[in-house]
Every structure is written in C-alpha cells, then in structure tokens.
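User: My advisor, Dr. K., asked me to get a structural model of this assembly before our group meeting. I'm new to this, so sorry if the format is off. These are the inputs:
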Amino acid sequence: MKITRRRFLELGVTATASAAVWPLPGFAQGAAPRVVVVGGGFGGASCARALRQVDPRIAVTLVEPNPTFTACPFSNGVIAGLRELSAQQFTYERVAAAGITLARQLATGVDVPGKTVTLADGVRLPYDRLVLAPGIDIRWGALPGYDEAAAAQMPHAWKAGEQTLLLRRQLEAMDDGGLVVISSPANPFRCPPGPYERASLIAHYLKTRKPKSKLIVLDAKDAFSKQRLFQAAWAELYPGLLEWVPLSKGGAVTSVDVATRTLVTDFGRHQAKVANVIPPQKAGRIAEVAGVADRSGWCPIDPVTFESKLQPGIHVIGDAAIAGAMPKSAFAANSQAKTCAAAVALLVTGGTPSSPKLINTCYSLVAPDYGISVAGVYVPAGGQLADVPGAGGVSPSEAPRGARTAEAVLAEAWFRTITGEVFG
Amino acid sequence: MPKAVAAAIGLLSIAAAVVASAEPPAGAVSCSGCHPASSTVTSAVPRLAGQDRAAIVRAMQEFRSGQRAGTVMDRIAKGFTDDEIQALATWFAAQK
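Assistant: The format is fine. Below is the predicted structure of the whole assembly, which you can bring to the meeting.
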C-alpha cells in the first residue's frame, strides 16, 4: 500500500492535533516534551512507538524520507530466490496511527545548542531529546575501486531493496559453472553473521539450480560469528561448492576492478561472474553531521541511556552505535530502542533511568530448513555494554536435524513478530 | 490497630505495584523481540502478558538449570538472577 505525501501530512496533522488536546498531567498545556527520532528502521520506528507506549504525553516525530521500509533480515532469502522482496517491505501507516508525527524528509542538519533538527526542505524541528537511528552508510572509496558506480555492477546488497534484487538477477542470469565471489569486511559491520548466511543460501541456490558453479568467500577476518556451526553445515551441505578464504590465507580484498568483475587480494586475483562486495561501513551520515560519530565512524554511547558521549541530548541506537558486546542486528536495535525510549521518557520528565539489561537473539539460515542462532544478555559495565558471563552463546554444535529445523521455524516466527510489533 | 497496619501495608504494596508498573524490570522490554507484546501478532512463541506468575518463574528457572530443553531460552535464562526472574514474572503476570 502506498502512502501519498498528502496522506502523510494528513496523518501528521491528525497526530499533532490529538497531542494538543491530550490531557497532560504534570505538564502545562502545550508544553508536552518533544522527542524527534531520525531513521525509520528497526531501531528508530521501534523507539518512536515505544516512546508513545511508555508515555503518551510525549510528542514524537519520526523523520524518515522513504515511504516504505525494506528489512534486511531474511533479504538473503530474496537473493537466493526463496522469497520475494515484497515480504521484506513495510509502510509507516500503523506507526502514524499510533500517534507519531511522520516527517517524510531527509534530516540534513542538527543544531545541538539550539536543539533543532533541520530537514531537507528547510523545516526545523525543535526537540527536548533527539534519538538518531540512522543505520549504516557505505564507506565509499575505503576499498579502492569500489564506489557508487561500482555497486551497480558488483552489488553490496547490504541495504535491502534494489541492490538485493540486482544481486538476485545477476545470479539468475549466470550460466551453470560460473564463479560467484563474496567479499566480507573487517569488523565492525552490520549483521556479523550476514555474509555467511548469504554464502549459505547462495550455495543452496547454486546446488539446486546451477550445481557446476562455485562460490568463494574472501574474508578480511580469520574468525566470524557462529563460525563452527556454519563450517560444519557447509561441509555437510555444500562440500566442494563453497570455499571460505580467511585473512591468513589471503582472503582480504585490497581492491576491485569493476570492468572485469575482479577482486584483488595480496595473494591473487579472482575474476567472478557474479561479485558481491560487502564493503567497509560507518554510521549513517546524520551521525557525522550531528557530531556524534567518533574517528572510527561509529557512535560512542552511554550504556544506560544510549545518550551520545560526544553531544548532550542526542541518543544513538542500532547499527550506528558502539554498543560494546552487542552486535549490529535488528534484534539488538529493537532491544536498544525500547531501553532508550524508557530512559528518554524518564529524562524528559526529570527522572533517572536505572541500569538496564538487554538481549540479542540472532538467527541465520544455512539452508531453508536449517537454522542456527546466537544469543546474548548484556549489562552496562565499565562504560560499555558487556556480556553477562555464563549467558548467551550459539546453538549446540551437536544437535539432531530436528533442532536445526526448529530454529529455522523460530527464525521466521521472530521476523513476523518483530515486523508486526514495529510496523503492524 | 492491626487493621490499620494491614491497611497501611496494603496501601504500601499498592504503591509499590504502581511504582513497579511505571518502569519495566531489567530485561523486560527485550522479551517482545520474540514474545509478542501486541495481541494482534500471532506466533508460535507464547505471549508473556497475563501468564501465571509461578509458571514464568518455573520456566525461567528450568531453562536456566537445563532441566527444560530450550532453543535459545536456555542460553538467555542464564543471564538472569532469581530476583530478576521474580520481577519479570510479576511484571508480565500483571499485564493484560
């Protein structure tokens, strides 16, 4: 369902009007605390909705230029032809119906002392607290030869949407016997097990549709998330088809040549029929503009409130944040969003948030009916979010196939639940 | 006199319950990543709102000890103390 600009404005006006007549115990009429949330992904949309649920007196504005959200989790299934992109897409209609004002614009500036966000059309939104959930941006040029034009030939598909479909079309167009190459970046990056789930599902596609083909994963690391589980499953399901080349065996890609679809390492050149370059990343651009990103490109935060360590009054959640032991996942972003919302709701009314406990659960599919997971529980410790010792970890290495099937079913259930909670 | 004390204790526990309902206990907001909070979301994973308090405590303790087999809950329950489990169970049991 498409939402027109006019409809968006109407929804915005409705939400504002209802906020104005809302009884505001504890606040003078018209002095409701204002929270602006930038970014309508799992972090931002979750936070906006949680703020309204925690305290309906708070006037919440969600800034997001796209009328449709395209979810990354499960988008590897789209690449492998297991599901359609439409299953990944959600509108903001229910978000608006929850009483959140939608500003369908790109946020282009933040005036920290003046506490306003500037939108692309010049409108300034005043805030008492600002939450930035900008996700990631590609660090164009960090990998020599890989710029925006290169991504049209060698897709990254690390932001779901047109790039996802491009990679799928290239795989579908490839003749049987072709070489597919994935390059995986150094830490940190969005979705640590993502490159390996993608490799698994592409291998599944090749095994079932183009069995003479080969897949090589060139990795800038020697270790990765759920590694033993992935490698055991690869040996069982895709022997001879999927090869992982770690850093120590020359896996780090040092440049790419778009014209010949070649990935260059210190040890050699790999000319691919289909090349998927997962490039180095950083926090979404507004983080840099607002001054909340440090030299690493990511955003240091207080682990209790998610307030920036660099700029007061601005909170950063999701992939953009440096969240210690918490990975950059949709589940983590959602968990952080709700924790941050509770903290912000207290802070705008003069309260003091208590120390939170956060959870992450992250499923990966190694085949359509073969799931594995990693879970973690986190608490603030030493200014960071740290693992609770003894908790969390990955699926057991020895498990009956039924347990893997159950995890594949739970992965799907998780996706339906989280998207239903956030966008439904 | 005992009546007044009982009434006062009653009021105190109501006040405590109100305070408890204002801020979710540690970890509570993360559960809805998998366990639907909204009644409109259907899932094989059970909703926690309105579940029996003792049943939640028992499930968490059994997941934690390994007595009950879990897929991820065995790993997650190990991150919670007895006091935190009690607080979570009280919180969810009180939800509609």
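One thing worth pointing out at the meeting: Residues 5-21 of chain B have pLDDT under 50 and may be disordered.

User: Perfect, thanks a lot.
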